Amino acid sequence: MPRVECEQCKRLGHLAEKCPFKKDVNAVGKVNGTSNLYERSIIINGRKVKGLIDTGSACTLIRTSVVEKYSMAVTITSDSVLRGFAGQMITSNRSTRCEIRVMDAVARVDAIVVSDNHLIYDVIVGRDFLEQEHIITVKKGNKLSFKQLPAINVKDENIVDVNYSSIRKDDTITIPTGAISEEARQQGTALLQEFRECISLSMSELGKTDAASLSIRCTSDVPIVYRPYRLAENEKSIVRNITQELLDNDIIRESNSPYASPILLIKKKNGEYRMCVDFRKLNAVTIKDKYPMPLIEEQIDKLGGNKYFTGLDLASGYYQVPMAADSIEKTAFVTPENHYEFLRMPFGLTNAPAVFQRLMDKVLGTFKNSIAFPYLDDVIIPSRTVEEGVARLRQVLNTFRTHHLTLKLEKCTFFAESIEYLGREISEQGVRPGQNKIQALTRMERPRSVKQVRQILGLASYFRKFVENFATIVEPLTRLTRKNVPWMWGEAQELAFNTVKNKLTTRPVLTIFNPDKRTEVHTDASAVGVGAMLLQENNGKMTAVAYFSRQTTTDQRCYHSYELETMAVVLALRYFRVYLLGMKFKVVTDCNALRLTFAKRDLLPRIGRWWLEVQEYTFDVEYRAGSKMAHVDALSRNPMQLPIEVSQVDITEGDWVLAAQLQDEQLSRIRTILAEGRTTHETKHYFEEYVLKDNKVHRRLDNGTTVWVVPREARMQICRLCHDDAGHLGVEKTLERIKRNYWFANMRRFVTKYINACLNCAYYKRTAGKRQCKLNIIEKVPVPFHTVHIDHVGPFETSRKQNKFILVLVDAFTKFTLIEPVRSQKTCYVTKILTNLIYLFGVPNRIVSDRGTAFTSRTFRIFCDTYGIKHVLNAVATPRANGQCERYNRTIVQALATTTAGRDPRDWDALIKQVQSALNTTHNKSINTTPMKALIGCETRSPTEAPLLSQIQDTVHRLDLDELRTEIKAHIGQEQQAQKERYDKARREATKYHDGDLVLVQITSDPATGSSRKLHPKFKGPFRIRRVLINDRYEVEDLREGGKRSRTVVAADRIKPWITVQGE
Length: 1064
Prior knowledge:
Blueprint: E1 39-44, E2 47-53, E3 61-63, H1 64-69, E4 75-83, E5 89-102, E6 105-114, E7 123-125, H2 127-130, E8 135-140, E9 143-148, H3 182-194, H4 233-248, E10 252-254, E11 261-267, E12 273-277, H5 280-285, H6 296-301, E13 308-313, E14 333-334, E15 339-342, H7 352-364, E16 373-375, E17 378-383, H8 386-402, E18 413-416, E19 418-421, E20 424-427, E21 430-432, H9 439-442, H10 450-461, H11 470-480, H12 491-504, E22 519-525, E23 529-538, E24 541-551, H13 561-575, H14 577-580, E25 584-589, H15 605-614, E26 618-623, H16 630-637, H17 653-662, H18 665-676, H19 684-689, E27 690-693, E28 696-700, E29 706-709, H20 715-722, H21 731-741, E30 742-743, H22 747-756, H23 759-764, E31 771-772, E32 787-793, E33 805-811, E34 817-822, H24 827-841, E35 846-849, H25 853-856, H26 858-867, E36 870-873, H27 883-899, H28 912-920, H29 931-936, H30 946-952, H31 961-984, E37 987-988, E38 998-1002, E39 1019-1029, E40 1033-1038, E41 1047-1051, E42 1055-1057
Parallel strand pairs: 2-7, 3-6, 11-14, 22-25, 25-26, 29-30, 31-37, 32-35, 35-36
Antiparallel strand pairs: 1-2, 1-5, 3-7, 4-5, 5-6, 8-9, 10-15, 11-12, 13-17, 13-18, 14-15, 16-17, 19-20, 20-21, 22-23, 23-24, 27-28, 28-29, 32-33, 33-34, 38-39, 38-42, 39-40, 40-41
Helix pairs in contact: 3-8, 10-11, 10-16, 11-12, 13-15, 27-28
Domain Reverse transcriptase: 247-426
Subunit structure: The protease is a homodimer, whose active site consists of two apposed aspartic acid residues.
Domain Integrase catalytic: 778-939
């Protein structure tokens, strides 16, 4: 009878599905001696149970046994999927409504009922309890407490929540107010109800004033006509909806005007769309309205001494101004499907701000700058008391009603004790200076490199004429930019840096804005940030009014430089808007292409969304070279840091360890056995191998110590901790680190797989141990010029004959060498010299070369095909494959250098043939004779020795060529074998790859950037093996490129396997 063992309880005689002791493998027994801060007694419906406070759990969980024990009512719900910390998922469709008390905090929650097998505690209290409004959690050191706020009496609360969308004409309107008296609140509410017609809740309730209209006068009577921009079908549907709403509310009407400006559909951040009319051409010929905008400083000065401030915002203010009858046709625009014109003033017309400001000034009349301060569609009403504020608000609302203007209640503020207005914070304490306009400088971090110091000096030098003793102040900074001066940021540099910032943010450098003076906005952008300056001319010199800088976001850093420069202009105009509206100014940038941005017809959606904001400004764009924009370049490359939100997870390492073990099936079973403490024959080995310590399962080691048992789902985290975060060490060192504190089964196999799958190791580490690829012997055919090795050497100094390179040709058998000077590495010179060789010695069977462009070109391939020559290209970065030439190259360069010593270096090519003759008449060790003798069968006299040898030799010794070449072939074989033995001592057999395998290829050359390459990747890929060649070479295809993927040949010692996928 076969042995039957239960996989669940490990007892004999039954199977797991019929186990009488069946218990989920996550079951956890009672654990003693815990000191966990989050374990505490919980009161549920007046009954005391043991629980765990879990700030990471979204919901509260309760064991089934607890629900049954206390007869708690259960509700059947839809399935809830619960994911545990280590990845385990369970489902439950039951919940119970219960009252939970933790210390002084009490709340009711819907707890999810979970099987006892999944919880060690009776209840786990989650965030649905902890995050209730009246509960406060206080953690101080090792103490944790829970408190409850007292009940709030709503009747005594002065803050009222208004649902604006639900207000109708017959509804009671309540205004949101601060902590003021009930009487004042009632007065404000009654006042708003009295002037209900001044409140617009939808486009149908917009006012239409009779106090102003927009008339467009142009410098030319020629109509502006454009074809409609192309839109997708879904965009056309959106445009139809927008235009229909405008038609229904008499904002536009259908048109037969000779004018036609195109529209652009812009997607807003909230996902909705806005239709914008491209009025750039119309604005270019419009005569500008010179009505002045309010003087900001004068308005701000008059707001002092008040305690309460009411801010009013008109609803779609421009749409409340009618178009003059004779100008309606000029506002006509075309969609892909229709032709319309505006009856109300549209956004984007150049004179719209001036017309609207004239309207507000006229409407408020004598109230202007006394009880109400208008700036376009924003109106601020200051008061010393709430009663005075109510009275002044009545006066303003009355004049709004008279002139048919309506407010947008959501954007209005009533009786606030502080308010933001035109970039200032206004309160009872006074007007806080506009720190925003200088914080780009005041918050600039100290430079950390010489390059950043130069940028700061570039900014400061722009205003040096206003700073007394400028050179003396910045001398400590200037000193750091000199050559051979080590970087040292000390007290002198810190003082100079702070002094420069102070000088640039105070008078006379920083001046008060004057709308009557010539104004320029200088902008610059880089990948890290954008910067801008608002400058005005004073006494013939440009002085700063305000500074702006901002970091780019991660997405914006991927923008094209043209987009970044455009964005810099838009953000700058948005930031300086209160200064620039209604006046003519100049934008100065170092991006020449930017000048065309505001004249293009077809714009990218992102650019289109930006120019939507700048149509209301009047400005010219001027280009200046980057060298003249150093002052603003410093702001863009040293931007203000964006605020970073830090989310902190309230969980300790001990909590993580415990949670991970609780959700591991095998460890939960072991924990149950150890906690129960009952030893049986089947469980004896668990007590010998494991132990419970501090509520966690540990493994006993042979040396008597214990280490934490890593759950299956946590192995990756441990490997990441001990490998990725510990310097990406190898298998043995990573294993040694893990073994100090952790244990899990099959540790070596898992760690090896993990490291083999590490991308950083694959790309940045070189292959350890002996290099691959032993030397492959190529048999030499005993025929001169059967195989020719060819290579370029150089460049050298340009000779008098304009030569810069040497072309070296070596016969593989006789070692006879031809050296020819050439002007460049072009294929035409190579084929010309090879043609001469063919006419002298015949057509070679084979040519061996590297992968230089002269040898991989189409012309060279045609040349070889024409003569039937087999062309062998070396593998990438494998010079040993063309060793004949590589060795001769070194000898030739040395011989040429010594021969030309003391002569004009431009005559080096005149000595080439002398070096060639010397090489061919010198004994060659590999053939045991001279190349000349091996070629023609006798020794010849070299030109340098001929005069002397003619006196002492009168005969020429001729040899049997067949016998000589047989001896040479045998000697070459012996030399090749000796070379192979020496070479192979430091090498190992190459890894064998197959067609289709993925590999990484070693990077053999990097672009010259001037920076160190030590921290650069060592490999690139992935590549796929496409063909297995002889002598440990492979043709590989680059998978990184799309479309037609390039192929090349590499040797086995230049590649390594692609990472292996981590598996079980």
